[in-house]
Amino acid sequence: MSGRSACLFSVLLSLLLLQGSAFVEELDDSFMDTKGSDEIWLIEFYAPWCAFCKQLDPVWHQIGSELRSLGSMVQVGKTDATVNTGLAKEFRVRTYPAILMLKKDTKYNYPGPRTKEGIMDFASRIEGPLVRSLSSPQLFQHAMSHHNVMIVYVGATSELKGNFTSVAEELIAHTYFFSTTRNVLPKSVSLDYLPAIIVFKDGTYVIYDEESDGDLKAWINRERFPNFQHIDSYTLYAMGESGKLVLLAMVEERYLSDKSLRYKHLVERVAEEHKETYSRFFLFGFMAVGDYINGFVMGEVTAPSFLVVNLSNDGYYQPVGPVETERHLLDFLDGVLDSTIEMKGGNGFSQRVQRIIYEAKATLIPVFREAPLIGCFLAGFPLAIGAFFCFLCCRNRTTTDDEDEDTAALSATSVPQRKKIKDKKSD
Questions:
Q1: Residue 67 contacts by C-beta under 8 Å, 6 or more apart in sequence?
Q2: pLDDT exceeding 90 applies to what percent of the chain?
Q3: What is the β-pairing status of strands 196-201 and 149-154?
Q4: Interior angle at CA 210, CA 208 and CA 211, nearest 5
Q5: Is 357 helix (H, G, I), strand (E, B) or coil?
Q6: CATH 3.40.30.10 in the chain, residue ranges
Q7: pLDDT: which is higher, 405 or 41
């Protein structure tokens, strides 16, 4: 019976994948010439040897099937970037799998985790209008219940709204943008002037002030993250655009220990209770220890622990002593701000060299463990190329020296001959 069940499950899985594949089109280099001008495409660029691409493949077919069942206008495609190099060059693909959307002639890179929910949300943002209108209090409350962060323009058409729309076109891949009128807003929102731009998050709101907040895009990049959240590698990378430092409670990947839970709650409490003091300088969250953060510090980060990262210069800060209380954590943050705690890492020349060495070791060591011969080839091939070029340079120099000696010898023998000819003429 178990054998029959396994066989039946395998058949059903194959049928589901086959059904999903009907909604995912394989694209080639002719795509840009044949697509319609009003079509919206969600495209995966993959490589046959890429393990992450293989993991994403069943998810990609589920996305194609689900978007079709929802009546979405988004068409789903995928292409082998190692074969269709022209298309990959058109979209400036550098890594795999790369996920992009094409709406009319505008290209959008997907910046989030490779999950069905994340990609579907991305497709929904790009497919819809840049700025979504909220015409009633009910629609506003519905939007608030579905979004942790809302960026809202309030008022009639103005120069500020034109600027807001331009920023939305650049940042729509990251967050949603809305517009509404004053009477739609919750009664708790107080506005001294219109038009206005408001960010709703963390149960409160922040109003844009051009005089004190400066450039609108930079302000939205600072404010588009919740004050405290679960942070993955994609989110942490995106936080670099905020210009803020990020305080992280580093925890285990799956099952959090009691100490990890205490560290996480401590960061959350500081983020909430000391928002007025620190939110201008810090974002807060918790993150699982993994390859990304280990690569960032070029070492092993222990869990649980505290870490402040400066994504603008690849620097980081660690407490100099134990942090067990809220006061300890606040002293740590103050030490970061007043530079009494030394920053480690950075993007100086020596740090860049160390990072190259670290990344090379991190890449090669697992290969040596799993496949020593391949590891030896990968490590030895660049050395062999370097040695070959050194040999060519040395050989070229030796050849040049020999030619110079021959030229000198020829010149030495030709001078007396010219002298003899001259003497003969004088006779």
A1: 23, 42, 74, 76, 120, 123
A2: 69
A3: antiparallel
A4: 125
A5: helix
A6: 17-127, 132-223, 228-347
A7: 41
Distance (Å, whole) CA 173 – CA 384: 44
Mean pLDDT, residues 248-256: 94
In the chain, what are the helix, strand and coil shares in percent, each to the nearest 5?
Answer: 55, 20, 30
C-alpha to C-alpha distance for 91 and 267, rounded to whole angstroms: 40
Is 7 among the catalytic positions? no
Q: Are 131 and 172 in contact (CB under 8 A)?
A: no
CATH number for 17-127 (one of 3.40.50.300, 1.10.238.10, 3.40.30.10, 1.20.120.330): it is: 3.40.30.10
**Residue 50 bears catalytic tag:** yes
Closest residue by Cα to residue 240 from 343, 308, 310, 289: 310
The single residue of 7, 53, 376, 394 carrying the catalytic annotation is 53
Q: Would you mind telling me the total number of residues written for the chain in this entry?
A: 427
Single pTM value for the model: 0.76
What kind of fold does domain 228-347 have according to CATH?
Glutaredoxin (3.40.30)
Residue of 7, 50, 390, 394 with catalytic role: 50
How many Å separate Cα 333 from the centre of its chain?
Answer: 26
- Residue appearing with tokens 């070492």: 299
pLDDT in tens, 127-145: 999 999 999 999 999 999 9
pLDDT in tens, 37-95: 899 999 999 999 999 999 999 999 999 999 999 999 999 999 999 999 999 999 999 88
pLDDT per position as a tens digit, 331-363: 999 999 999 999 999 877 877 777 676 666 555
Do strands 228-230 and 282-288 pair parallel, antiparallel, or not at all (unpaired)? Answer: parallel
The dihedral built from the CA positions of residue 304, 305, 308 and 309, taken in this order, carries a sign that is: negative
CATH class for the domain made up of 132-223: alpha beta
